[in-house]
Specification:
The complex is a heterodimer of chains A (about 240) and B (about 300). Chain A is built from ten helices and ten strands. Chain A is α/β, with parallel strands linked by helices. Chain B has a single domain, classed as ABC transporter involved in vitamin B12 uptake, BtuC. Chain B contains eleven helices and four strands. Classes of the chains: A alpha/beta (about 240), B mainly alpha (about 300).
């Protein structure tokens, strides 16, 4: 098992955001988390990095208990996050953002990884020396994904990657998620408000509600489940 | 004309020192958004370390001036950055995540603490050292005035330029520089990419202190006297320089330092010397009222 969360609780200020989460991700899987706004999806991802720190429960990554590690230590274990809202460094160039992503990875891989990211997102090559803050939202999302890939993560977390993007970019993002998994064997945990698309690419999924997992199953099972259809697919989210 | 040229040289010298101190203010503000009011006193401590070193060297009969200067610079930078590290560790890190006002009050407390410690251990009286570098080059002789650049002035200006070029290169071109800037722009994201944010902040304090130490050694060499209170005025003037240049901006701090040095020199030479501090603080008020983001700073944008 690549990632195991057992009975994880977490608080954001006074809000009890996660209430006993059990989630597992196997190597080579795409797993998606769906749920309404405020269900705890983003908190779950951030809690993997100890921000907020789990107040109870255990998080094991790649055979190691990472529950109490510092955020940067967890990142160095091989988890990369493409955060909600992209969070590229606006006053750094595209190239520097990618260097930041590669930061602590082996230097001899840098050129090869850069070439791989540029092949995936040619627009980043064109805008290499441009400040990231001047890119469009879609381009920033490409950069955020490219940056996350530069460290050769074992587990890639994507938090709402399609949020606020034009349809052409949304299609491209889901295509990339599929490619990364199929061609590069990348293990991916995906949070999406676009439940329909997410469940179609995912092997398995979890439904989150009020900080707890209410339903789990394969992508097809969840797509067919009447509760999921009623709450997340036919309610205008699809 | 000759007189003005002399003021230009004096102003550049002064400006170089303000610029070196201002970098510490601006970098700390950039990374944790607070004004480190103890920074001026860190500079004062470095001047005392320099005085101690020079006295020891004189007692040891070291006669090579370049050797002595190198030694004093290295020792002073080392111990002063240790002070910078300790101040952050003791007074600011425990308050991270609390209100914006808390570290500011803590900084003022730290400033008072450093001043009093030095006053108690070193005495309240002015400490003089014998001139380290004497003489200079006569640049221009007119019947009633001789323009001269002292060797110490030349040393200060050249050292400052070299340091600023090296420092700018480090911030823009090295992995540490990128980490430093990433923490300035988005600390959470930097940590998510594996950057040790606490360590980066510590190093920022140490670097700022090391640059202030260079200024402290220069002041000691240039004026030959120090006392426990020099950090206050120099600190606030360097802070003014950082605000004038645009707080948070590295080139801004350098430019601001230079401008404050020049304004002070020319004001003292042509207007009223006794009001030169008023001129500096007048500028602080004007900048804060009319252009709070300074000459090279970014306007403060609220993050959504």
């Amino acid at each position: 098992m690549m990632l195991t969360m057992t009975g994880v609780h977490a608080h954001y200020g006074h809000i009890h955001a996660l209430r006993g989460i059990d989630v597992e991700v196997q190597a080579g899987e795409i797993v998606t988390l769906i749920g309404a706004n405020g269900a705890g999806k983003s908190t779950l991802m951030m809690s993997l990095f100890g921000n907020p720190r789990a107040s109870a429960g255990q998080i094991v990554f790649d055979g190691e208990d990472i529950t109490g590690l510092a955020t940067h230590e967890i990142a160095l274990r091989g988890i990369s996050l493409v955060p909600e809202g992209r969070r590229v460094f606006p006053r750094m160039t595209v190239f520097e953002n990618l260097q930041m992503g590669a930061g602590f990875a082996a230097a001899e891989n840098f050129e090869a990884d850069l070439a791989r990211v540029f092949a995936m997102f040619p627009i980043l090559d064109e805008r290499k020396m441009q400040r990231a803050g001047t890119l469009s939202g879609g381009e920033q999302q490409m950069l955020a994904i490219g940056r996350a890939l530069m460290s050769r993560p074992k587990l890639l977390l994507l938090d709402e990657p399609s949020l606020g993007l034009a349809p052409i970019y949304i299609r491209r993002i889901f295509q990339i998620v599929r490619e990364l998994n199929r061609d590069h064997g990348m293990t991916i945990l995906l949070v999406e408000q676009n439940a329909n698309q997410a469940l179609k690419v995912a092997h398995r999924g979890y439904v989150l509600q009020h900080g707890g997992v209410t339903l789990a199953g394969s992508g097809e099972e969840l797509l067919a489940s009447p509760e999921v259809r009623a709450a997340y697919l036919e309610g205008g989210h699809g | 004309m000759a007189y003005a040229l002399q003021q230009l040289i004096n102003g550049l010298t002064l400006g170089a020192m303000y610029g070196l101190i201002a970098i510490g203010y601006t970098m700390v503000y950039g990374i944790i958004g607070m004004i480190n009011f103890a920074h001026g006193d860190i500079f004062m401590v470095s001047a005392f370390i320099a005085v101690t070193c020079f006295t020891l060297l004189a007692a040891a009969d070291v006669s090579s001036i370049p050797l002595a200067l190198m030694f004093v610079l290295v020792v002073s930078m080392f111990f002063t950055s240790a002070y910078g590290w300790a101040v952050e560790r003791v007074a600011y890190r425990p308050l991270r995540g609390s209100t914006r006002l808390a570290p500011l009050i803590s900084a003022i407390g730290m400033s008072i603490f450093l001043q009093n410690t030095v006053q108690l251990t070193q005495g309240a009286r002015v400490k003089p050292i014998p001139p380290v570098i004497e003489g200079g080059i006569e640049l221009w002789q007119t019947p009633d005035f001789t323009v001269q650049i002292g060797w110490s002035q030349l040393l200060i200006i050249v050292t400052t330029v070299v340091l600023m070029v090296a420092f700018t290169w480090m911030i823009t071109h090295t992995a540490f520089g990128r980490q430093q800037r990433s923490c300035e722009q988005d600390r959470t994201m930097a940590a998510l990419l594996g950057v040790n944010v606490d360590r980066t902040i510590s190093l920022t304090f140490m670097l700022g202190a090391a640059l202030a130490a260079v200024a402290g050694v220069m002041v000691t060499v240039y004026y030959g006297v120090v006392d426990f209170f020099i950090g206050f005025l120099a600190g606030i003037k360097a802070f003014t320089a950082a605000v004038l240049g645009g707080i948070g901006s590295l080139p801004g701090a350098m430019l601001g330092g230079l401008l404050i040095g020049l304004i002070e020199s020319f004001w003292a030479a042509y207007l009223w010397a006794e009001y030169k501090d008023v001129a500096t603080f007048g500028i602080l008020c004007l900048v804060l009222m009319l252009r709070p983001s300074g000459l090279l700073g970014r306007p403060e944008v609220e993050k959504v």
